[in-house]
Amino acid sequence: MTLELKIVLLVLTYLLGSIPFGYLLIKFSTGKNILKHGSGNIGSTNVRRVAGKKMSIVTQLLDMLKGLIPVALFLTFSTSLANPNFIFMLALVAIIGHDFSLFLKFKGGKGVNTTLGASVLIAPYSVFISVAIYFIVKWRFKYVSMGSIALAIAMPIVELILHEITPTFFYLAFSSVLIILRHQKNMIRLLNGTESC
Question: Is the pLDDT of residue 83 over 80?
Answer without folding.
Answer: no
